[in-house]
């Protein structure tokens, strides 16, 4: 498989992450009222920004995510530029990020998210599933790296994890 464009050659060591004071942490241990049937309370929601340029896949991801009542898609797009704007507007605690987007690649999105909020969980979901590309994504700050062809089914498990917990590298 070819290496996607936009992957820096070496580690990104010269970036200086800013403190994430604008984005409050969301704890899955908090209880909130449940307006539906079942227990009187459930865990706080995971606020997800969905970034995928394929509309059919984005619809499928939204459906898959929608099966978990504790995950809310706060915004979605297929554009790198719009992803950064939506990230700042909606302040999600988790971003599901495709690499090849309508107007570029995900590296600028990943770097900006981690610069603005180092604690935001970023899950890269891509067809470029080589070990070298995974390593490059992790150097840029990706918390998880999933292959669209192999790891799609792991997404619900990753989204169910507490966003405050240390990232478990997949």
What report would you give on this structure?
The chain is α/β, with parallel strands linked by helices. It has five helices and nine strands. It has helices at 55-66, 80-90, 107-116, 131-140, 155-160, and strands at residues 31-33, 41-43, 46-51, 71-77, 94-97, 100-101, 104-105, 121-126, 144-147. Strands 4-3-5-8-9 form a five-stranded parallel sheet, sandwiched between helices. Strands 1-2 form a two-stranded antiparallel sheet. Helix 1 links the parallel strand 3 and strand 4. Helix 2 (80-90) packs parallel to helix 3. The radius of gyration is 16 Å and the shape is globular.
- Segments where pLDDT lies below 50 for 5+ residues? 7-43, 165-170
H/E element string?
A: EEEHEHEEEHEHEH
Biggest β-sheet description: 5 strands, parallel
Q: What is the CA-CA span between the terminal residues?
A: 20 Å
**What is the β-strand count?**
9
Helix/strand layout:
Blueprint: E1 31-33, E2 41-43, E3 46-51, H1 55-66, E4 71-77, H2 80-90, E5 94-97, E6 100-101, E7 104-105, H3 107-116, E8 121-126, H4 131-140, E9 144-147, H5 155-160
Parallel strand pairs: 3-4, 3-5, 5-8, 8-9
Antiparallel strand pairs: 1-2, 6-7
Helix pairs in contact: 2-3
């Amino acid at each position: 498989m070819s290496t996607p464009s936009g992957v820096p050659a070496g580690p990104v060591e010269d970036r200086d992450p800013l403190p994430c004071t604008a984005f409050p942490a969301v704890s899955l241990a908090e209880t909130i009222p449940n307006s539906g049937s079942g227990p009187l309370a459930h865990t706080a929601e995971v606020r997800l920004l969905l970034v995928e340029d394929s509309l059919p896949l984005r619809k499928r991801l939204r459906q898959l995510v929608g099966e978990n009542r504790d995950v809310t898609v706060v915004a979605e797009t297929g554009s790198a530029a719009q992803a950064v704007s939506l990230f700042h507007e909606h302040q999600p605690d988790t971003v599901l990020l495709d690499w090849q987007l309508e107007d570029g690649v995900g590296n600028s999105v990943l770097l900006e998210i981690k610069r603005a909020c180092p604690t935001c969980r970023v899950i890269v979901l891509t067809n470029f599933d080589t070990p070298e590309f995974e390593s490059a994504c992790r150097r840029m700050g990706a918390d998880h790296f999933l292959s669209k062809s192999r790891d799609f089914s792991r997404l619900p498990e990753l989204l169910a994890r507490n966003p405050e917990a240390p990232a478990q590298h997949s």
